Amino acid sequence: MENTQNILSVENLKKYFPLPKSGLFSREKRFLRANDGINVTIRRGETFALVGESGCGKSTLGRAILQLDAPTEGRVRYYEKSGKETELTACTDREMRALRQRLQIIFQDPYSSLNPRMTVGRIIGEGVWTHGIYPRKSKALNDYVLEVMDACGLQPHFINRFPHEFSGGQRQRICIARALALRPEFVVCDECVSALDVSVQAQILNLLADLKEQRLLTYLFISHDLSVVRHVADRIAVMYLGRIVELGETEEIFRRPAHPYTVALLSAIPSIEEEKREKIVLRGQLPSAISPPSGCPFHTRCFMAQEICSTKPVTLQETETGHFSACHFAEMVKNGARKNG
Ligand code: SF4
User: Fold this and answer.
1) pTM for the complete prediction?
2) CB of 101 closer than 8 Å to CB of 91
3) Could you give the CA distance from residue 215 to residue 235 in angstroms, rounded to a whole number?
4) How far apart are the CA of 309 and the centre of ligand 1, in A?
5) Is any ligand 1 atom within 6 A of the Cβ of residue 302?
6) 301 lines ligand 1 (CB under 6 A)
7) Of 60, 107, 73, whose CA–CA distance to 241 is shortest?
8) What is the position in ligand 1's atom list of the atom closest to the CA of 302?
9) Structure confidence by residue, pLDDT tens digits, 287-326
10) Tell me: the pLDDT tens digits for 155-167?
11) Whose CA is nearest to atom 7 of ligand 1?
C-alpha cells in the first residue's frame, strides 16, 4: 500500500527482556516488559518526541524501531518517499545493514560512542565508504567529510584530531556529523543533549533544527525533559511503564494535557510563563515493569485515581482529533481537574 505522508509505523510493538526464575524450583517465566503494545505512526518531516521518566522504555523503543534490538512482538514498517513499504521487523541482518544508511541514531553519551583511536575524519568517513557513497581514501571522500563537518560546525583542521581532544558539545557534533554523513531520512536522537551543559544543549538543538530543515529529516527525539522537547517537537508521546499514555500535538499537550501523568510532568517544569501550574509531586516510585499494576498502570501514583482505575484496563483513546489519552477521566483532566474526587 502506498504511504507517502508517513515514514514509519509501529504496530503493537512489545519488547520483553527475559529474567532469571524467582526461585530454584519456580517454573514461572518472568519478563521485564520494557515496551508493552506500542502503536504509533511517525510522519515524514516531523520531530516526534518520546518523553517519560528514566526506565519508562523510551530508549528501548527507539532501538527496537531501528532493529538494534529485535522486538519480541509487533511490526515496524518503513515507507520510502516513493511510497514503497518495507517491514523492518521482517528484514534479514543484511537487509537491515543496507537500510541503516537511511535510519540513523545519535546516542546520549558523546564520550563513549566515539572510538578513541580513530581520527574525526575516519569516524565520519568510515560509514560513507562502507555504504559505497564515496571510495575509501579518495579525495572525493575527504572533500565530502569536510563538507559534512562544516555543516555541523566543525572546523576543517579537526579532521586529523582524536575525540579526547574535544569538549562534550564538539563530540556530540562529531556524532551528528557521523550520522548525517550517511544522508539518512530518519534519525533517532536518544537523549542526545542530556549529557551537555544547558548553553551547549541550545547550540546542539539549533544545529539539529537547521540540519533537519536543510536535509528534510525526520527525527524521533527521545528525552526525559519536557522543557527541551517543547522547543523541538511537533508531536509528543508520553510514556509510562512501557506504554504510551498520551499522544498529541506539542502545543495541545502543553495547553490541555489529557493524562494526569503528563499534568504532573508539566507541573515540574520551572518556567512555564503563561500559566503558573501547581507543582504535583507523584507519590511512590515507578512500579516494576516485571509485574505492572492492574487496571491503569498509573493508578498507584495517580492523584486523580478512583476505585475503577485499579481494575478496569485503559487503552489509548482519541479525545479530539489527533489527541489521545489512556485515562478513564481524560475529559476531566483536560478541563483542569487536579484532585481526587
Ligand atoms: Fe489516573 Fe485513573 Fe486516569 Fe489512570 S485512569 S491516569 S489512575 S485517573
Assistant:
1) 0.93
2) no
3) 20
4) 6
5) yes
6) no
7) 60
8) 1
9) 999 999 999 999 999 999 999 999 999 999 999 999 999 9
10) 999 999 999 999 9
11) 299
